[in-house]
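Here is one such protein, fold included:

. . .
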Amino acid sequence: MGSRERKRVSHFFSPGGRWLAAGSDPGVVTLSEVATPIYSRDLQMQGSSGYRNVFSVAFSPDGRRLAAANQSGNVTLWNLDNTDQFRTFTEPESEYSVAFSTDGALLAVGGASGKTSVWDIATGEFRARRNLRPATSHGTAYSVAFNPVGHGLAVGYSDGAIVLWNLVNGKESRSFEVPGPAGTVGSGGSVAFSPDGHLLASAHGRTVILWDAASGDQRHVFAAELSVASVSFSPDGRWLAAGCEDKENWLSREYGYVRLWRRF
């Protein structure tokens, strides 16, 4: 029962919805079977020291592996067939975001300094340049997302900037211009591709912007009542979801909700 009283920092459902992974503040990921949530298992990240909030968790596309990144700069992968640790990466800074590529071969990790690393999961080596870092500093690499088609990686930064990277050459292929002065519409960071890779959604304060991933043009702007912490598309691409939170009244029972938009 003690594991359920921890402060939950990040959550992620596995493909198919069998598992729910929840990252917490002592460097622990709780893995629960959704159908029988009373049965859960705590997975401890190794090598954690100091501040150990688990900021991000992600399942591989086939649902057989789980990755977690924490505030100590550790990234751990588990095989879910037996919940054994498969591989551990260590970075000299807090890691805020993780994402698997569509084929499950690569893992992208976004850090506090704005650096994004791309790892080859099978070998444990860097698959792209060690530091995918914009020429202009944009703060923390708050969110990372692979394009389901092609070789693109989108990174959303804490100041609201969005950069699309080409993983073949490790260079910026496009940046998206977010309207509004810094600290208003531009603040945010969460990004997500549509299943067909044609659209990119990004969160900025109480606004969600839908972009044409190829041209960088804005397709639509959605307004939310609360600050948007995360965005995602439904598997069929027809719905866009936004996880919203009330940062000013976080003790309220109405602290957060999910906003859904049917695709335009």
